[in-house]
# Entry
Amino acid sequence: MFTINGSTFHYGDFINYLIAFVSIAAAVFFFVVKPVNVLMERRRTGVDVGSETRPCSECLSEIPRQARKCAFCASPQPAAA
# Structure
Protein backbone atom coordinates (compact mmCIF):
# COMPACT_ATOMS: atom_id res chain seq x y z
CA MET A 1 0.00 0.00 0.00
CA PHE A 2 1.03 3.63 -0.38
CA THR A 3 -0.21 6.94 1.03
CA ILE A 4 -0.85 10.24 -0.78
CA ASN A 5 -2.12 13.28 1.18
CA GLY A 6 -3.42 11.10 4.01
CA SER A 7 -5.25 8.66 1.69
CA THR A 8 -4.03 5.08 1.62
CA PHE A 9 -4.20 3.06 -1.58
CA HIS A 10 -4.27 -0.71 -1.16
CA TYR A 11 -3.08 -1.80 -4.59
CA GLY A 12 -2.54 -5.35 -3.36
CA ASP A 13 -6.23 -5.70 -2.55
CA PHE A 14 -7.13 -4.24 -5.95
CA ILE A 15 -4.93 -6.75 -7.77
CA ASN A 16 -6.40 -9.58 -5.69
CA TYR A 17 -9.98 -8.51 -6.50
CA LEU A 18 -9.11 -8.09 -10.16
CA ILE A 19 -7.65 -11.60 -10.40
CA ALA A 20 -10.67 -13.07 -8.58
CA PHE A 21 -13.09 -11.23 -10.88
CA VAL A 22 -11.32 -12.34 -14.07
CA SER A 23 -11.10 -15.96 -12.94
CA ILE A 24 -14.80 -16.10 -11.97
CA ALA A 25 -15.81 -14.41 -15.24
CA ALA A 26 -13.73 -16.93 -17.23
CA ALA A 27 -15.28 -19.85 -15.33
CA VAL A 28 -18.82 -18.57 -15.96
CA PHE A 29 -18.04 -17.99 -19.63
CA PHE A 30 -16.54 -21.44 -20.27
CA PHE A 31 -18.89 -23.48 -18.06
CA VAL A 32 -22.18 -21.65 -18.74
CA VAL A 33 -22.14 -19.37 -21.78
CA LYS A 34 -20.26 -21.60 -24.23
CA PRO A 35 -22.34 -24.77 -23.53
CA VAL A 36 -25.61 -22.82 -23.75
CA ASN A 37 -24.54 -21.31 -27.08
CA VAL A 38 -23.71 -24.79 -28.42
CA LEU A 39 -27.13 -26.10 -27.32
CA MET A 40 -28.94 -23.12 -28.85
CA GLU A 41 -27.07 -23.62 -32.14
CA ARG A 42 -28.23 -27.26 -32.23
CA ARG A 43 -31.85 -26.25 -31.59
CA ARG A 44 -31.89 -23.45 -34.17
CA THR A 45 -34.95 -23.81 -36.37
CA GLY A 46 -34.61 -20.75 -38.61
CA VAL A 47 -34.62 -20.87 -42.39
CA ASP A 48 -31.25 -21.81 -43.80
CA VAL A 49 -30.43 -18.96 -46.16
CA GLY A 50 -27.53 -20.79 -47.81
CA SER A 51 -29.63 -23.85 -48.63
CA GLU A 52 -30.31 -24.66 -52.28
CA THR A 53 -33.72 -26.17 -51.51
CA ARG A 54 -36.96 -24.91 -49.96
CA PRO A 55 -40.15 -26.65 -48.79
CA CYS A 56 -43.09 -26.96 -51.18
CA SER A 57 -46.02 -24.77 -50.12
CA GLU A 58 -48.50 -27.66 -50.57
CA CYS A 59 -46.82 -30.98 -49.73
CA LEU A 60 -43.79 -29.68 -47.75
CA SER A 61 -41.32 -31.82 -49.72
CA GLU A 62 -37.92 -30.29 -50.49
CA ILE A 63 -37.70 -28.71 -53.96
CA PRO A 64 -34.98 -26.61 -55.61
CA ARG A 65 -35.11 -22.94 -54.69
CA GLN A 66 -35.66 -21.80 -58.31
CA ALA A 67 -38.43 -24.34 -59.07
CA ARG A 68 -41.74 -22.99 -60.40
CA LYS A 69 -43.61 -26.27 -59.97
CA CYS A 70 -43.28 -29.05 -57.37
CA ALA A 71 -42.01 -32.35 -58.79
CA PHE A 72 -43.98 -34.37 -56.23
CA CYS A 73 -47.45 -32.78 -56.14
CA ALA A 74 -47.28 -30.64 -59.35
CA SER A 75 -48.55 -27.53 -57.56
CA PRO A 76 -47.37 -24.16 -58.87
CA GLN A 77 -44.92 -22.44 -56.52
CA PRO A 78 -44.63 -18.75 -55.71
CA ALA A 79 -41.47 -16.99 -56.86
CA ALA A 80 -38.46 -17.59 -54.66
CA ALA A 81 -37.54 -14.66 -52.41
Observations:
- Strands lie at 2-4, 7-9, 53-55, 62-64.
- Helices lie at 11-42.
- The radius of gyration is 29 Å.
- The first strand starts at residue 2 and ends at 4.
